[in-house]
Amino acid sequence: MLLSNSVLAVSNTPIHWGFKKARNEVPPEAGEKYDELLKKYDAFYKGSPDGKTVYLTFDNGYENGYTAQILDVLKKEKVPATFFVTGHYLESSPDLVERMVEEGHIVGNHSWSHPDFTQLSDERIKEELDKVKEKTKELTGQKDMIFVRPPRGILSERTLKVSREAGYIHVLWSLAFVDWKTDQQRGWQYAYNEMMKQIHPGAVILLHTVSKDNAEALEKAIIDIKKRGYTFKSLNDYLLTESLDDKSIIY
Known about the structure:
Layout lengths: L5 H4 L5 E2 L15 H9 L12 E8 L6 H11 L3 E5 L1 H6 L1 H9 L3 E4 L12 H19 L6 E2 L5 E2 L1 H9 L3 E2 L17 H11 L5 E5 L3 H16 L3 E3 L1 H7 L10
Parallel strand pairs: 2-3, 2-8, 2-9, 3-4, 5-7
Antiparallel strand pairs: 1-6
Helix pairs in contact: 3-9, 6-7, 8-9
C-alpha cells in the first residue's frame, strides 16, 4: 500500500488505545510517552485531575434502538454529550442526528466507513473525515466539526498529524468497558457498576449507544455521579478550560 510522504516524517506504528482502568477516583495514566505524543497534536483522553468535571461521549456506528432513550435521559438530566458518528449512522438515522444537534449536543467525527486509519493514505483519511463533516452539516446545519475519535481505537503519530492538519482534535477516553457486543449484554447493573468504579476527576467517558445495558443504566449512573460532586460538561468546555494552546479553534 502506498502512503503519502508524511509517513517518512512521522511514525505510522499503530497504537491500540487502552490502559489500566481507574479505581478509587484516581485518574488513569497512559504514560509519559503517550502523554507527550497526544499533547503535540492537541489530542487528549482526560481532563484536569484538580476539578470534578467529567465529559460524556458516545460512539455511534449504527443504530440499535437505544439512542432515543439515551437522548431522553440526557435531556431530563441536563447533561451535554458528544456523539461520534459514522457515515452509516448519518445515512440510516438522520432524524436522531438532527435531534442530537437540536438538543444542544455535539456531533463528532468517527469516520465515514470505520476503517483503520493507519492503513489509509493521508488523502483517504481526509476524505473519510470530510464526508462525515459535510453530511452532518447537510442534515443538521452544524457548520463546525473539530472532534474526531479514531475508528477501532487505532491511531498513530501520522494519523494524529493528518487529522490535526485537517482541523481535528483526537478525543480518546479514560473510562470505558466492553459494552459494544450486543450478543453479550450483562444487564444494566454491569454498566452502572463499571461507570461508578471507574469515574474520576476529568474522566472522558466512552459509551456505545448500541448497548441495552448502557441505555438502562445511564440515568441512575448520571444521578449518582452527580451525587459524588461531579459536573458533566461538554467537550467545548474542555477546550475553554484545559491547556489547549490555540483556543481560537472553537469559534
